[in-house]
Amino acid sequence: QVQLVESGGGLVQAGGSMRLSCVVSARTFSSYSMGWFRQAPGKERKFVAAINWSGSRTSYSDSVKGRFTISRDNAKNTVYLQMNSLKPEDTAAYYCAVRYLAGLGENGWEFDAWGQGTQVTVSS
Q: What is the mean pLDDT of residues 61-72?
């Protein structure tokens, strides 16, 4: 069973940066697409970014495009989310997810396993 563990969350001031990591326990990690989602209190989970198996294709939500960068290191079974120019509205629990099928996904139902999440709080 695939397990995902996120880390790197915490408290940061507006305008700051933070990098999230997600380690995936899967021998076939390099064949999976990966995604990041976030959920603010009282709100639904929303797509943030996705990356294909090789890292050659990425997609972003409009709200983070130009500020966040998703990347991966297949040798380390890890996907990253570099977040720059953070805003208070970026405050949320961030979740990484794995997609077994080829191609990028942007909906939660397109992903097959999830991590427990890491909290990111951006103060104004």
A: 98
